[in-house]
Amino acid sequence: MPLYLSRFSYTPETWARLTGHPEDRSEAARTYIESVGGRLHGFWYAFGTHDGYNLWEAPDNVSMAAVALAISRGGALRSFETTVLLTVEETLEALHRVEQVGYRPPGAQGR
Q1: Per residue in 17-52, pLDDT tens?
Q2: What secondary structure letter does DSSP report for 6?
Q3: d(CA 93, CA 43)
Q4: What is the pTM of this model?
Q5: InterPro entries annotated for this entry (predicted)?
Q6: Contacts for 40-48 with beta carbons within 8 Å, 24 or more apart?
């Protein structure tokens, strides 16, 4: 199954609710991904640009998109970004296919 890395940031209101009533949100995240047949591999909070990170496994992009949309529409997050992660083997396969693409840079005539 594909892996996905999500970066999220809570709204100030969400942080206020969590400081008043602390809870382990990784359990909620686990429930969301398992509802589509996936698995939560990790849930971390962080300092910096994003408040936290999740590593998920989902059956496909549509399943992960459904989870991301459900979480995003809840209103507790200021931002939520998800990146599809490629294995080394998938990246090597892509590298071998590069020449098939026939890319031509803008303004390069006849290439």
Answers
A1: 999 999 999 999 999 999 999 999 999 999 999 999
A2: E
A3: 30
A4: 0.86
A5: GYD/TTHA1554
A6: 41/3
